[in-house]
Design a protein that fits this description.
heterodimer; A: Beta Polymerase, domain 2; four-stranded mixed beta sheet; elongated; B: Alpha-Beta Plaits; four-stranded antiparallel beta sheet
Chain lengths: 867, 112
């Protein structure tokens, strides 16, 4: 061993090669430990002693920690202790130096200490970690008798005094670790050592059990009844897997690294023989095995801890006497957990199976391991009668209603197999790989994560990152429905067909079986049916398009459903991958939510028969036009047309308009007049490519031709064609309007629209005739209101003033001059007073927010109307 | 070689991407970005409370292309990202000095 550094590097390389050939886990750790043993002995022999008198040395060297347990991973720290007699006259510094320098030079991380037996015993009293490390010390070299003396008295002390303090401090330690590294086995990038179900969990538990059962190794633990043979083989198997993964991770990253980051997962799966390291199926299979293994470790750790506590167990029987606790006969609190006193209980009262979870949630206590085992052995009490029982379902729903702690209970139910029996459809998605690339969890785990996310949101964990949603969730009164919808939202994935459609079908079966109230069942089916929809609309549609929001709102139908869907969508996408719901996406969702909320709140477009009504109108239009234009063109034109317009006009009128627009082609204007002889007014239809100020020009032409505008309905199709429906009466009421007059109107409209004629000139020509008939009694008292809250899409300007001829022209002129476009106009005349509402946007097609501009609009309108 | 950086409305991404692929653009980098231009932010009112949106969500496209298709690419983005309303975004054209494909070491236009 000329050069220690090279030797160690070569050894590690050799190990890595053997690793790739299948030398895994414990065997690899043993091999590396023994390589290190040899190195240390070699260093010792060449620097401190000859081979012959090694045992006669006055001191000894021992291995501690993972090295002591012969579980040394490549790149791990090497912990050494030099044991010295109470009266020692050798040169400690020299010994330590000769022993350690070569190791440091070789690039190893070595921790060391020098201790007398007295040191050890005193320190053990004060420091728990020292006690644990000393239990696992292992002889390396030097005076063996001295070492044995140390060992005997250390064990005697470790196992007798303060064992209970040790145990409770270990448990505390475990809990604080959990807070730091995540409380779930199912993390996207778990920590192999310190995470839940990691190596440290089982080590701590083994330490506790060893102290409690006075055992020095696993075999002794079995002899003393701490673990059954079955549990020991599960332990060995799980540990071996975890070590295997850890070996791979260390080799891949070339250093000590226990964070199983996403980038390594596929590669390790490849190394461990799962198959193609780039395949997601391989990755999933590997991570699934990892989670299973971590679950086992977590389970075994709890078993060990619980059994170690058992000697001095505190048992409270929960019978009628303690009914204040809310539990029934047969349950009791044991070691601060809920246990089942009578193993025959399930036979007599199967519903206990669900009650135990309710108590666990309400009393905030774990279910003891013994009770868990009893549950797992009695799963067959959950049969069809059980699933249909009202009592069972009432209990289940009351669990979901609790809000806080639900996720944890559902996870326990899932782990014990209860959830899959209670909802067999959920059993079908257990361990089911998902096919979308942004999911890396199996469907059941994804579902439980989504439930976690909802609970985090409820608990206010996202107060800073998603403030809007965090406030919104406080409005939610039916958390039980959201929990249930989340639980059921992906059930369809177990089938090859469209998972949403199949999912809804399954939801009906399940809610029927559960006997859920009809209204609740409908909400859950709705949520499952639309669980992808909101995401699609928010991310791929134009949210400033009012018609889109109206159509979206029609599907959602009420504000409660909208809120629930938003929350469910959040939890679902956050659980697919935590970066899948960014603040960027949150901004889009929020916009969609608020806009749809306002539409739904007003209720204008949300009658339940809305879809039906729209469909009927469209069908009528189609059958009307079928013979007159190609089918594709009819559909195309219908798609362009805003819902507001479709709902406000009869199919006959709509058909006529579509036909007119279709024939529009290169001409600037489509024009049509319908006379309502009995009512004394005319409906004029105008369609033309939209531009700012169009309505103003139309008003001017009407003024010139002595037409008084009674009503106007303006809409813009999504291809930019403005459709204006104007109801007018003729100023000379008793005369009929000749057809030449209509031609003249159409002619003038075409001229002002294409710019050959200025509308101002036309109106000027009219000159002094303006307003002639009311000259004496003009009522100019005017109020103007501007509202930006009514609509998310328009600024609304309300004008109330005395009626007069050409009034609309004056108003629209002001707006046109200021670059304001009118999208909707509602004109009402009552007893010589006019109330007009204009839905407007600025030149950029946005609402007008600037106070200054709004003031100016108001001022200019006032000036125009009061003069 | 030129680099095109375009900031567009998120819902226009699919259209623009499709049309650019049709033009023969081989690859692009897409990021979710937030920002403001002349549109500034806006305020959403919900149940009487104001939520100020300072930065509006947009998508940023980055494409490096040969000089001869620059005008075609710019035209396409302009056409398909347009809604005519404020906030449609911007397109920037920048000169690119060098391009290297890391795996093969190919340079210049070979590498894009």
């Amino acid at each position: 061993m000329e050069n220690l550094k090279d030797y160690i590097r070569e050894s590690i390389n050799r190990l890595e090669e053997e690793f790739s050939k299948g030398l895994f886990g414990r065997r690899l750790l043993r091999r590396y430990s023994s390589i290190m043993d040899e190195c240390l002995k070699e260093v010792f022999l060449s620097n401190l002693s000859s081979r012959r008198n090694v045992r006669n040395k006055s001191y000894a060297v021992a291995a501690l920690g993972s090295y002591g347990r012969e579980e040394l991973s490549p790149f791990s720290d090497i912990d050494l202790m030099i044991l010295i007699p109470d009266r020692f006259n050798g040169d400690l510094e020299d010994i330590a130096g000769k022993m350690l320098y070569p190791l440091w030079d070789a690039g190893l991380t070595v921790g060391h200490c020098n201790r007398t037996l007295k040191d050890c015993l005193t320190m053990m009293k004060g420091d728990i970690t020292i006690r644990t490390s000393l239990i696992e010390m292992r002889y390396l070299i030097g005076n063996k008798d001295l070492y044995n003396r140390f060992l005997t008295s250390i064990r005697k002390n470790a196992f007798s005094k303060g064992a209970n303090t040790f145990i409770s401090s270990q448990i505390k330690d475990m809990e604080s670790r959990r807070k730091c590294y995540g409380e779930s086995v199912y993390l996207l990038e778990p920590h192999l050592k310190d995470g839940e179900g990691g190596l440290r969990d089982i080590q701590s538990a083994l330490w506790i059990a060893k102290v409690k059962f006075k055992a020095t190794n696993i075999d002794e633990l079995r002899e003393k009844g701490a673990l059954s043979s079955w549990e020991i083989s599960l332990l060995e198997e799980s540990l071996d897997f975890l070590w295997k993964v850890r070996n791979g991770l260390h080799f891949l990253s070339g250093r000590k690294n226990d964070h199983l980051a996403y980038e390594y997962q596929g590669k390790i799966a490849g190394l461990l023989g799962y198959g193609d390291s780039t395949s997601t199926a391989v990755l999933r299979k590997f991570m699934h095995d990892y989670y299973q293994c971590a679950e086992n470790i977590k389970y075994l750790s709890s078993v060990l801890i619980e059994r170690s506590r058992k000697d001095k167990r505190r048992i409270k029987t929960i019978g009628r006497r303690t009914s204040s606790k809310g539990m029934e006969l047969g349950f009791r609190i044991e070691n601060n957990g809920i246990s089942i006193a009578d193993s025959q209980l399930f036979g007599r009262d199967p519903y206990v199976m669900i009650k135990v979870f309710k108590y666990s949630l309400e009393l905030e206590k774990e279910i003891t391991i013994a009770a868990q085992e009893l549950i797992m052995n009695n799963l067959d009490v959950i049969d069809e009668d059980f699933r249909k029982s009202k009592e069972v379902n009432d209990y289940f729903i009351s669990i979901l209603r609790k809000g806080e702690g639900v996720a944890k209970v559902l996870k326990t139910m899932h782990r014990l197999g209860v959830l899959g029996r209670l909802i067999p459809e959920f059993g079908n998605i257990t361990h089911l790989p998902q096919s979308y690339h942004h999911h890396i969890y199996t469907t059941d785990i994804h579902t439980l994560f989504a439930i976690d996310e909802f609970e985090y949101l409820l608990a206010g964990k996202y107060r800073d990152t998603f403030p809007f949603l965090s406030n919104l969730v406080k409005e939610e009164k039916r958390v039980d429905l959201i929990f249930l919808a989340l639980l059921l939202h992906d059930l369809g994935k177990a089938f090859d067909t469209d998972h949403v459609e199949k999912g809804v079908e399954l939801v009906h079966t399940i809610t029927d079986r559960m006997g859920l109230p009809h209204e609740d069942a409908k909400v859950i089916a709705f949520l499952v049916k639309h669980h992808i929809y909101m995401s699609i609309v928010a991310q791929t549609r134009d949210l400033s398009d009012e018609d889109l929001i109206i159509k979206f709102s029609q599907k959602i139908k009420d504000v409660d459903r909208l809120r629930m869907l938003y929350i469910l969508t959040f939890a679902d996408s956050k659980a697919s991958r935590s970066e899948a719901f960014t603040s960027w996406k949150a901004a889009l969702f929020q916009k969609l939510y608020i806009r749809a909320f306002h539409i739904l709140e007003k209720g204008d477009f949300t009658m339940t028969d809305m879809d039906y009504k729209l469909d009927k109108i469209k069908n009528d239009v189609i059958s009307d036009l079928r013979s007159k234009m190609p089918m594709d063109d009819i559909h195309y034109n219908l798609d362009l047309t805003p819902s507001r317009y479709l709902l406000n006009n009869s199919p006959k009128v709509i058909s006529n308009h579509i036909l007119l627009c279709w024939n529009l082609e290169e001409r600037p204007l489509a024009f049509d007049v319908r006379e309502k002889t009995d009512k004394g007014y005319y409906d004029i239809f105008i369609a033309t490519p939209d531009f700012p100020g169009l309505f103003y020009k139309v008003c001017g032409v009407m003024v010139y031709h002595n037409m008084n505008i009674l009503d106007a309905q303006i809409d813009t199709r999504s291809d930019g064609i403005a459709i204006e429906l104007i109801r007018v009466n003729y100023l000379y009421n008793d005369e009929t309007v000749e057809s030449q007059e209509w031609s003249a109107i159409q002619d003038n409209l075409e001229k002002v629209i294409d710019g050959r004629l200025k509308v101002e000139d036309l109106v000027k020509k009219k000159g002094s005739y303006l307003g002639f008939n009311e000259a004496g009694l003009r009522d100019t008292k005017t109020t103007i209101g501007i509202d930006n809250d009514i609509s998310d899409f328009y600024t609304v300007i309300d004008v109330e003033t005395g009626d007069r001829f050409s009034l609309l022209y004056s108003i629209t002129k002001v707006m046109s001059d200021m670059g304001i476009s009118i999208y909707i106009a509602k004109i009402t005349t009552r007893l010589m007073r006019v109330t007009d509402s204009f839905y407007v946007r600025d030149i950029f097609g946005q609402k007008i927010y600037e106070e200054k501009t709004l003031e100016k609009v108001k001022g200019n309108l006032m000036k125009a109307l009061e003069n | 070689m030129k680099k095109i950086e375009a900031i567009i409305k998120p819902f226009k991404l699919d259209d623009v991407k499709e049309k650019l692929t049709e033009l023969g653009v081989q690859g692009m980098t897409v990021s979710e970005v937030k920002g403001f231009g002349r549109q500034k932010g806006h305020t959403e009112i919900y149940r009487g409370a104001e939520y100020v949106i300072d930065f509006v969500p947009k998508v940023k496209l980055e494409i490096v292309i040969k000089d001869d298709i620059v005008s075609k690419v710019v035209e396409t983005i302009e056409k398909y990202a347009r809604t005519g309303k404020i906030g449609d975004g911007k397109i920037f054209v920048l000169p690119v000095e060098e391009a290297i494909r890391i795996r093969t070491g190919e340079r210049k236009e070979e590498a894009i």
